[in-house]
């Protein structure tokens, strides 16, 4: 079932200065998110991803297009009705945005007060939520007494208080250290699997997408330039922007500078092998080379694992009889995609 | 010093009137200032309830009222008080003027403190489904509470200053005591005692304000 659907959605902000250019933050975006999935939206700052996510809970009204959440077109609703819709959409933030004037307990109570949940039910609901995020002992702590990771856990508990169908995470781990990031991502995965909540994650870190997302959407200059299942996008990125993102995680084909470095120490023939089809094992490929009496050495690249499926690029230096090397290259080329390094 | 003892009833009345006027300025003027300041903040271009006309009108109004010296407001507002049936040289008129002047002064202080509230927290509350008015009431003002208390404490000094000036229309504040029995009768001791009492009032106010703000801010 499609839970979120954007059809030709654009968002234009008026010029910040008189006589300035209007800012086209989101341009003609089509996007659907299925119930129960985790979608990662990546892009550099200014790509429009933060605006896009704010269109989904109507914190920013769309300039044009249609935007369906759970079957309702938000662009037709008034502010009062949107407030109801927002109870079904939790949101967490890069800077956590906890209320400094309330304790952890008070922060989680806030959305319950907004939703008009009777006071008598607060106690049980808040304890359940704090237990779920592992912060039961911090109920009466003030925000400044918490670490970054704990603050985000409170943010998650607060976002889940009204049992939403959707959770929007706006750079939720960008202010956290790598270890805490892993903990928070694990918690988000638990939110998805145990509570069945659909999650839209905005990030500029490919690691985050790789860890939890099912599907990835790449944005550039307000447009979606590429989208698909994480493994497919990571193993075979088509667009320039996507390649740059994937390259932050996976050493792909060596670039000019790297080739120069490799050439200084490796005189043999350099060949990059791209593994993405799991039916071809690495050992089968290497057997083709060794079987022809050709020596090889791994000089560049790496293999990445995405949700139990691996892919990657390995650059080999091949040495031996020229004819044998030629034949090895041809045989390997029949098994995997190869790129000759100049 | 004998003269001070002799004037004890004058000092006592001066103290009571000063406290009464200051309380009116701080609480009534403060409440109106809080409303105007909040309206100034929420009506800003990227505010919670952006409204260009409201923003422009309030800003012009505040900017016109604030620079007028208090002594002159005291005189200019006399016809207004009389229209309401309040004598232009009465304590009632002093209350009207002090409330009026402190409201506009406090409005700016309130606006400045609200600007300092993290907009992300306001956005989070909106994302949780809170209405704009609820965000103002349950997030904006509570988040700014500590600095608002400090702002009001700061305004207290200016308000006590106003009560002194109200002495010139014959309102029996400590300022009146100092002007009438100190200045005009060349009695420095009387003036000094009046000043001392005013300093003590401000000190107590400042101390209470700081303590309360520290409690709210938890630092």
From TrEMBL, chain A:
SMART domains: AAA, NIL. GO terms for biological process: amino acid transport. SUPFAM superfamilies: ACT-like, P-loop containing nucleoside triphosphate hydrolases. GO terms for cellular component: plasma membrane. CDD domains: ABC_MetN_methionine_transporter. Residues 4-246 form the ABC transporter domain. Keywords: Amino-acid transport, ATP-binding, Cell membrane, Membrane, Nucleotide-binding, Translocase, Transport. The keyword Translocase applies. InterPro entries: AAA+_ATPase, ABC_transporter-like_ATP-bd, ABC_transporter-like_CS, ACT-like_dom_sf, MetN_ABC, MetN_ABC_transporter-like, NIL_domain, P-loop_NTPase. The keyword Mitochondrion does not apply. GO terms for molecular function: ATP binding; ATP hydrolysis activity. PANTHER family: AMINO ACID IMPORT ATP-BINDING PROTEIN (PTHR43166), METHIONINE IMPORT ATP-BINDING PROTEIN METN (PTHR43166:SF30). Homodimer. Forms a membrane-associated complex with FtsX. Part of the ABC transporter FtsEX involved in cellular division. Has ATPase activity. Belongs to the ABC transporter superfamily. This is ATP-binding cassette domain-containing protein. It comes from Aeromicrobium endophyticum.
Automatic annotation (TrEMBL), chain B:
Residues 15-208 form the ABC transmembrane type-1 domain. Pfam families: BPD_transp_1. It is a multi-pass membrane protein. InterPro entries: AA_ABC_Transporter_Permease (IPR051322), MetI-like (IPR000515), MetI-like_sf (IPR035906). One of its GO terms (cellular component) is plasma membrane. CDD domains: TM_PBP2. One of its GO terms (biological process) is D-methionine transmembrane transport. It is found in: Cell membrane. The chain crosses the membrane at residues 20-42, 54-77, 83-106, 147-170, 190-213. Keywords: Cell membrane, Membrane, Transmembrane, Transmembrane helix, Transport. Belongs to the binding-protein-dependent transport system permease family. This is ABC transporter permease subunit. It comes from Aeromicrobium endophyticum.
